[in-house]
Structure formats: C-alpha cells, structure tokens
Amino acid sequence: MQARAMRRRTRVARRTSAATALVLALVGCATDERAAQTSLSGEQVYRETCSACHATGVANAPRLGDRKAWAPLVEEGQAVLTAHAWVGVRAMPPGGGRPDLSLLEFGRAAAYMARAAGERWEDPDAEMLERIREEEEKRVEELRAKKESGTGS
Ligand code: HEC
C-alpha cells in the first residue's frame, strides 16, 4: 500500500512543472548559501581554518583525533577550554587567527575536534555560549592581571 502511494506521489511530482522545480531549487540554494555564510558548522570551520595547524600538529597543536593529546585538555571542560582557545594560548592564535569567526562558530569547531577525540561535546547552545563568555572574561582579566604584575610597576 505504501509503495503504491509512493509511486503515485512520484508521478505527481513528475508532473510538477519544471519551472516550479527550478525556482524552488534556486531558492533552496540561496537560502543554504546565506546560512553557510552567516553560520559555519564546526567541520567547515575546522577544514577551512583550524586544520592548518591541528591536522599535522604545527607548533604542538593537538592533532585532530589524537585522543591522548586531547584527553588532558578536554578535562578542563567545554566552557573553559573553548574560552581559553578563543582568547589564545601560546602558539594558538586568538579565534584561530580568523577574526570573522563568531564565538559560536569557533565553539562548534572546538566541539568538532573534541568529538573527533572521542568526547561527547555538543555544538554550543545559548547556555553554553553564555558560560564560554563568562570564562572568556575571567581569562582576559587573569591575563591582564598577570601582565600588569609582570611589568613590576
Ligand atoms: C596557527 C596555528 C593554529 C590554528 C590556525 C588553530 N590552532 Fe588551535 N592550537 C594551536 C596550538 C599550537 C595549540 C597548543 C597551544 C598550547 O597549549 O601550547 C592549540 C590549541 C588549541 C586548543 C586547546 C587549548 C588549550 O587550552 O590548550 C583548542 C581547543 C584549539 N586549539 C582550538 C582551535 C580551533 C577551534 C581552531 C580553528 C578555529 C584552531 N584551534 C586553529 C594552533 C592553532
């Protein structure tokens, strides 16, 4: 019964005018493209940006899928680790060195790498983003205090 219904639907679909189908396809593409431009997935960000260092381990960057390298890092928790990487740590440039990335996109890429190392990190939701921002503030404050005490004045 289901198969027959499907065949019928297919026939109806074939009758739909080609022009309508084309318009729908174009609209679909434009929407996808815009969504991709405003918000990249973790995998996209990783491929376009983070992989430059994290694929091969440039300057000791923890490599994608290297569970051993990531284990002690992910222990810090998603909010802390994402925030510290976002602010920058040693040879890890702030925001991955890509200023047009949003914190959300960066966080997704971090979660993507954590998942590749066997962790169960979800892409950040609103609550997680809030926590990352709090950790970011703390970190910036901490670094500022360090710098000031470092000058010895
Ligand atoms: C220019 C090279 C480079 C690029 C590009 C880069 N990273 Fe890194 N990243 C590093 C290095 C090096 C480290 C290790 C830093 C250390 O602990 O000394 C690191 C560490 C990290 C860490 C662990 C931070 C910690 O507290 O130890 C995370 C998370 C991370 N990167 C995420 C990302 C994400 C997400 C991107 C892409 C948006 C990215 N990185 C792009 C070089 C890079």
From TrEMBL:
The UniProt entry, under InterPro entries, shows: Cyt_c-like_dom (IPR009056), Cyt_c-like_dom_sf (IPR036909), Cyt_CIE (IPR002323)
- Pfam families per UniProt: Cytochrome_CBB3 (PF13442)
Q: What keywords is this UniProt entry annotated with?
A: Electron transport, Heme, Iron, Metal-binding, Signal, Transport
Q: Which residues form the Cytochrome c domain?
A: 37-136
In the UniProt record, the signal sequence range is 1-35
Does this entry carry the keyword Electron transport?
yes
UniProt GO molecular function: electron transfer activity; heme binding; iron ion binding
State the superkingdom: Bacteria
**Has keyword Nucleotide-binding?**
no
> What is this protein's name?
Cytochrome C
